[in-house]
Amino acid sequence: MSDTALNDDGSLLRVAGLNKYMPGSRRLWRAREWYHTLKDVDFRIHCGELIGLAGVSGAGKSTLLNLMLGLTRADAGEIVCQGRPILPGTVRAMRWYRRTVQYIPQDPASSLDPRMSVGELIQEPLARLRIDCHRERRAAESLEQVGLDASFLRRRPTELSGGQAQRVAIARAIAVRPRLLLADEPLSGLDLPTQSRVTEVLKSLHHDAGIGLLLISHDLSVVCRLCQRTIVLDDGKIIEDRPTAALFRSPEHARTAALLRASPGLPHFATHHNDTMPATYDKESPP
Ligand SMILES: Nc1ncnc2c1ncn2[C@@H]1O[C@H](COP(=O)(O)OP(=O)(O)OP(=O)(O)O)[C@@H](O)[C@H]1O
C-alpha cells in the first residue's frame, strides 16, 4: 500500500460509530455489569491536523486512544486508516498502521528501555517495522528534529533529563516518518520551560514535516496553544468538535464551559451555562 493512501472521504483516519463497554463491578450473585465507556463516537482526522482531545477524568479519552492504537477492539463501529480497518493483532498484521500512526507515551522514563542506548532505541522500531533506510542516519536526523545533537545517540535513558527523555521518545516515534502522532499527556511531569520546548518541537514537526497530532491533555492551555481543532469528550460522547479558537471563545456546551472555567492558565470564560455538575465521573454512578 502507498504511504500516501487516504480513506475514500479524503481523511487519513476515520472513527465511525465507535462504542465500547468496560466491565464494571461484580456484585455477589449478580452478573457482571458493563459500563458504556464510548458512545457512538464519530470524527475524522485529515493529514497534518493538530487536534486536542479534552474532557474530565473518566470521560473516555484513554479508552478512545487505546482503540485508535489498535490495543483493544471496539464493541461496535470502526476505525479506518488508509482505507483499512484497524483491528488489534500481531505486530505483523499492524505493521502498515504503525508506519502511519505512532504513539508518544506519557512517561518516557518507563517506556525507554534503560539497557539500550538512545541510538538503539530509535532504530528499534525501524527494524521492527522493516523500514528500508540507513537506520543510524535516520536516528541522527530524528534527534536533530527534536533539537538534540548526535552525541545523544550513545547515551542511555538514565543519563537524560525528563525533557530530553520526552524528546527522545518523540524522535523514536518520528523516525518511522508517520503521518499522525497520538500523544497522551506528553508534557505532564515536565517543568514549564521544558513543556514549552517540547511544545515547540511538536509545532515544528507539524510545520516542517506536516505531521499531524491528536493530543490528550488535562492542561487546556497546551491545547489552546498547540491545536487548531478541539474535540471534547464527556461521559463517552463527543459534545463539541470545533476550531479551538471558537470553542475556547464561546463554548456551546455547558460541560465545555465548566471545563474551561476549571482550567488554570486560561482567561476567565464568562458563560451563561448552568454547569453545576461534578468535576469527575465515576463509572459506578454515571450522571
Ligand atoms: N480496564 C478497565 N476496566 C474497567 N473500566 C475501565 C477500564 N479502563 C477504563 N475504565 C472506565 O472507563 C471510563 C473511561 O476511562 P478512561 O480512562 O478512558 O477516561 P479518561 O477520560 O482517559 O480519564 P483520565 O483523564 O482520568 O485519564 C472510566 O469510568 C473508567 O473507570
Describe it for me?
Helix content is 33%, strand content 22%. It is α/β, with parallel strands linked by helices. It has a single domain, classed as Rossmann fold, CATH 3.40.50.300. It has a 6-stranded mixed sheet, sandwiched between helices. It has a 4-stranded antiparallel sheet with strand order 2-1-4-5, covered by helices on one side. Helix 7 (192-209) links the parallel strand 7 and strand 8 (212-216). The N and C termini lie far apart (45 Å). Mean pLDDT is 86; it is low at 270-287. The structure holds adenosine-5'-triphosphate (ATP). Adenosine-5'-triphosphate (ATP) is lined by residues 22-23, 35, 37, 55, 57-63, 281, 283.
Give short descriptive properties of this protein.
single chain, 287 residues, alpha/beta, Rossmann fold, 6-stranded mixed beta sheet, 33% helix, 22% strand, disordered C terminus, binds adenosine-5'-triphosphate
